[in-house]
Amino acid sequence: xxxxxxxxxxxxxxxxxxxxxxxxxxxxxxxxxxxxxxxxxxxxxxxxxxxxxxxxxxxxxxxxxxxxxxxxxxxxxxxxxxxxxxxxxxxxxxxxxxxxxxxxxxxxxxxxxxxxxxxxxxxxxxxxxxxxxxxxxxxxxxxxxxxxxxxxxxxxxxxxxxxxxxxxxxxxxxxxxxxxxxxxxxxxxxxxxxxxxxxxxxxxxxxxxxxxxxxxxxxxxxxxxxxxxxxxxxxxxxxxxxxxxxxxxxxxxxxxxxxxxxxxxxxxxxxxxxxxxxxxxxxxxxxxxxxxxxxxxxxxxxxxxxxxxxxxxxxxxxxxxxxxxxxxxxxxxxxxxxxxxxxxxxxxxxxxxxxxxxxxxxxxxxxxxxxxxxxxxxxxxxxxxxxx
Length: 388
Ligand SMILES: [Zn+2]
Ligand SMILES: [Zn+2]
Fold this sequence. Notes:
By secondary structure, this protein is an alpha/beta fold. It folds into two domains: 3-180 and 297-386, Aminopeptidase (3-Layer(aba) Sandwich); 182-293, Alpha-Beta Plaits (2-Layer Sandwich), CATH 3.30.70.360. The chain is 35% helix and 26% strand. The chain is built from eleven helices and 16 strands. The protein has an eight-stranded mixed β-sheet with strand order 1-2-4-3-5-16-6-15, with helices on both faces. Strands 10-12-8-13 form a four-stranded antiparallel β-sheet, covered by helices on one side. The two termini are 25 Å apart. Bound molecules: zinc ion (2 copies).
């Protein structure tokens, strides 16, 4: 019998739990009720529970048999500052906040796995479930890692999953290597010497320096990157001046950089401030640069991805497993966990008639994939702990 069929008795309870989470969305690092609910359920089912990991994060640990291997499975549980417009009976009861990314579904899915594993004890080794806060804003994965996640809950590999409303329902998607981009930002202030438009010789014009910086930044992708590689550098803000007959004192710019490999992310992160500083200096302009570090590139491990893929074939059948052709341009903080442990992040198709994109006010997690995901996690845990 397939694991998903074995899990069928849990279906109503888990969907009700998902709807409960949906009604009480909490944003990053404020997931107090969510975190308490997860901890209570895990404890009821016999898991060892550790709370406060990375502030509001929760870890559930269950060992069975004599196996020495351990696996980590992560689900995120934070919501977004978006006003829900689904009109659903279980819509958000917190005005201005909603589960618009399906993290309620990710959490309910992993809780279904937790209950199933506790009841069946159908594995040999240790399973750690990482319920993570603040994926959308503060990098909860990083907070958990910095809080000693992998020292306190040692595991051989770590896995994570996201629902994708544009992929067929119940289809598993895998990608070896990069799955999500890196995103970094820079706030730049140029300070010159203002004055009358008619006497530029006694001023230091931050607009001319800024214009030169904007153009020089265009050469990073065209001249510093291997033509076969990709990166994006965008100046999204350039503000200066208020009068046509005056040279302003200051100009501000923001720069957004995206990359799909760690190497290019590092190159852009180094070269952007370098180019800005040297350009500004050549105009006698003072510059301050504030770096806003985004999430790093999410890079899936080759061996672990092949392993995770093969388990999906067993869970769902080969016809329901696809290889993702290209990475997503967004970013995902599970990358911090993958920087420390081998593992893989996969996606699960969630398409249905009313499906809206992630972060859309009309989005809702597709309950039909809840047990599919939960069965997959249970299969993955069992198979991984058996493997060597
Ligand atoms: Zn999101
Ligand atoms: Zn998400």
